[in-house]
Fold:
Amino acid sequence: MAVAIRSMKVQSAQWLAIGLTPLTILLLLLHAEHYNIRLQIPAAHFILCAGISSLGAALALIVGLVAHRVRDVRILLLSLAFFAAAGFSVVHGLFTSDVLVKFPSPGRGWTHVVGFGLAATLLVASGFDLPDRMKGTLLRGRRTCYVCLFALIVAAIWVVLRLPDPRLGGDALAANYGSPYLRALAMWGIPAGTIGLLAVALHRNIQDYRLAQLPLQGAIVSGLLLLIVGQIGLAASPVWHLSWWLYHVLVFFGFVTILLGVVAQLGRGTTLADSFQALFAQGTMEKLERSYNDVIIALITSVEARDPYTQGHSARVSLLATLIGEEMRLSPERLRILHQAALLHDVGKIGVRDAILHKPDRLSDDEYSIIKDHPRKGEMVLRRIPALAPMLGGVRSHHERWDGRGYPDGLRGESIPLEGRIIAVADVFDALTSGRPYRPARSFDETTVEIRKGAGSAFDPRIAEAFERVLPVYQAQLQRSPHLASEAWTD
Structure:
């Protein structure tokens, strides 16, 4: 996960720059009014809104086609969100004064406020796992959903045409067509709600990106950051001033960024359907992950309840193995497999008699041969759970040796699964630093020397080196989690 963590840090820095740069510019313009000059160029506004509408329409069409094909209500809602943003942008740009219409239309400004508020609501809704009954209703009536949204856009046109009075400016509109409360709602309430909803969607996509790291997810996060800053600009900026123009530019590039994310995702060889379904797979994955974790915890608890001398052993081995995997730059998916395999590496001891597990003296040769069979038995137990299949190699091979003198299969060198090689180091380290009735616990320093001596014979040399590099981090983790600490640490 070291590569994944470094990659995530770089990506986070990029997101920080994407969000803070326009926000800083916006705040400077709002604070230094002499720089926030007025530029009333209706034609430029019309072109910019046309670009926003085109990009939004393209995204709505792409996602809508996917929604029709895969019949996924979450993708349907995402399509409706883009459709809302695009449709209201059409109205916003279409009635730009002195371009296609020759009269000011104060109601035009409300269309972007309402349009993006609706789009943000649909975007957040797409992230929820709706009840099955509601899903069925929406999917059966998906055409009705588009018709209703289109009707709202037509209604927005009607509102704009109802307010053509050339004497009314932006502020005058609220003053003449509503109470101060309505004015406050229009100027701050709806944009604030939109920003809040976009922030919820932003948080969810960041969490999903941390796990899957899909280009489309990363692009959506970047696009949402631009849209959030844009909404701040919309609420705080006087019409036609530079800060107001910045809002339109940010919305435009927010859509461009998301569209580029679609292209990047397709560049990975995935289909449109797979790309958008992957966006929402994380929620399902998390549910499955929780159910798998329940199974894992139950298995570990069963093992450790029968062998009191291994209390916390599986968790410590998993922690150390994962740190080693991070240092070796394993992918997030490979790290997940390593983490779970390390947790389950001793599950085969479920089949070992209590008399052997609890024996206070050294084991006889026959007893030791029974213990040596626990990797194979562990694989047999886990093989019955298809979801745990990726962990089988690590569980079966964690007692193999680099020189081929391990068990149960006598594998040598690179033929030993990587997870097994990593768990082997972590397992031996924790076993030696934990006391047994027949021997005291060794210190971390003594055990580190033993691991170093075993590099090239018992252990993969690269893994032994990675182990030494992460040992200080492991010690710090134990200090923060004293319930995991072995005797070598507590003593």
